[in-house]
Amino acid sequence: MKTQPTSRDVARAAGVSQATVSLVLGDKWRGRVSERTAGLVREAARELGYRPNLAARSLRLGRTRTALLVVPALTNEFFARVYTGAARVAAEHGFGVVLYPSPEGVGPARDPFASASAALDGVIASSMAADALASIRGSDLPLVMLDSDPGESGPAARVNLDIADGIRQVTDHLLGLGHRRFAHLASAVDSWTFQVRGRALDEALAGVPGAEVLTVPAALTVDAARQAAERALTGAGPRPTALICDDDILAAGACKAARRLGLRVPDDVSVAGFDDLALATALEPELTTVQLPAERVGERGMAALLDVLEGREPEAGDLPVSLVVRGSTAPPAR
Amino acid sequence: MKTQPTSRDVARAAGVSQATVSLVLGDKWRGRVSERTAGLVREAARELGYRPNLAARSLRLGRTRTALLVVPALTNEFFARVYTGAARVAAEHGFGVVLYPSPEGVGPARDPFASASAALDGVIASSMAADALASIRGSDLPLVMLDSDPGESGPAARVNLDIADGIRQVTDHLLGLGHRRFAHLASAVDSWTFQVRGRALDEALAGVPGAEVLTVPAALTVDAARQAAERALTGAGPRPTALICDDDILAAGACKAARRLGLRVPDDVSVAGFDDLALATALEPELTTVQLPAERVGERGMAALLDVLEGREPEAGDLPVSLVVRGSTAPPAR
DNA sequence: TTGGATGAGTTTTACGTATAACGTCCGACG
DNA sequence: CGTCGGACGTTATACGTAAAACTCATCCAA
């Protein structure tokens, strides 16, 4: 358990002062230190395996190079991918990303900052983690919101997906195949990203003669979705010929429901998802779904936070999404 | 952007010295400070919204209350769950967990510590992330290994699943159904946890008359698994009647392969998975699989690290796993 | 010859916390 | 009456770093 060498140890080894070490290693020695001395310092640092003490640096600078990412659940592949993207960009800039332990994880957690064991420079939050937002707002930390209502004020920056366009693409695809009777398997979570889906669907169907849609909400699990979809497929009135799902997990439940009812996908009922998770190609038939650039969301989120921290203007504009047509959609049975 | 209050601000507000604040808030004031004064301090701290500066604390104490979790990929649900468990236990003890940005994430990353933006008190590492281990070993930080070879030396503690027993359970289940010709859809990743599966399978089949097994390796993606399974099901010799898969993702690929070849699961071929991911119940039929307590692995890992840090003996013994029989296995066609 | 200007460092200080070492006051005991 | 030991605090210091302020030559122009 030999203790880590400090900048003073390096200084001693190189025969200079601690300040010089700091200057050289901090890359701020343009005209202050000679090339030769700088070389000596770097040599000594490598020799000793010097690694700056980050606690000391943070204390001195008042910044921690750490961002908090608030997501509802990492076990949701989408958010795992968001994290991956954010962490990549962060690492490139010497930043770290810590996660807010989601409600499913730890108990009380009213205060994200109590649980964040690190001091923070900024926060990136998904609008799906609404419960944590109030306390974040109070902290006047730079805040980047992911996929959130552009109408709300507060965040320093916003990274949004063009969700409405995704729904438009799905709907056009299904309308093109000849579908008119839809069910909308909606997430029960009341968050902007899902509200938009509902509104966009209504808009896309408005003006299409004979088009109708039955909305069924469900929790974000396969089983809850299956039950909801069974209700939608067995309710009163003519059976919907296409199920538009807010999420691939819901779509998986929808497929299960269809099978259980003896309906074939896509022959008897078409199913469309949202997200393009790994799940989408694991199912048989593979899901027609809207592909979301999850890593890009994380990357843009972290980049926006860095922009805000350094006084730059964050990049604006929604991220595009694209429909991927696979085997779960087909013309309706005639 | 008002700056955070410091312990000195609290002291001023309470009319005491900074040291007293530190004593009271640090809960080490048994006979040193009067009940009344302690109350005043706590009041003032609440009033000002005082929050200790963690950088300063870390610098002073030389410990950071931060652990590094090294996993191959968070997008793998198993590891996302391991993280969740570890983070929960960590939070209960005022610790944080940072993740090693996996190779798929960031580029160079030879050195986990260069990318860890926080100073660390210890490391929890999955044996599946073998590439990162060398540099960790060099750092003489307390190391807890997850699901790793008990023969190897190095780690301060080890948290293992009883993988061999899981394979035994699957195999017994399938033998009981009457299967004799198996294919083993194995992970191409060369890590202890997968090696054990192979060995345990051989052991379980040794001595069973007529039992044979064909091993086919595949990368951990649905598509790679599908291709491998197609080879296994169409190769020379009699077709295997049961596929034992190292992972549910591989099992999903196996199911797809069967469908493509016009084989029904489980009527024509049985498929068994490993992990019990959400995927397992999303598929149709639902997967028979070995349920692994992923969160428990994370919890035990973090608990073991805390034990090591505080000089206690970490809890020993493998975590039990259990077979979940669902619809993807049945007696072989006769 | 004086007086900048420049190059090459060094000395010093502050960041906020935890804690060891040091004061006081007061009641009680010998 | 002295002094001894709690009870209740305070003062002082160290952790390792970054950077502002300072020193000290040397060189060049006026």
TrEMBL record, chains A, B:
Keywords: DNA-binding, Transcription, Transcription regulation. Pfam families: LacI (PF00356), Peripla_BP_3 (PF13377). GO terms for molecular function: DNA binding. It comes from the Bacteria. SMART domains: HTH_LACI. PROSITE patterns: HTH_LACI_2. Residues 5-61 form the HTH lacI-type domain. CDD domains: HTH_LacI, PBP1_LacI_sugar_binding-like. This is LacI family DNA-binding transcriptional regulator. It comes from Streptomyces crystallinus. The lineage of its organism: Bacteria, Bacillati, Actinomycetota, Actinomycetes, Kitasatosporales.
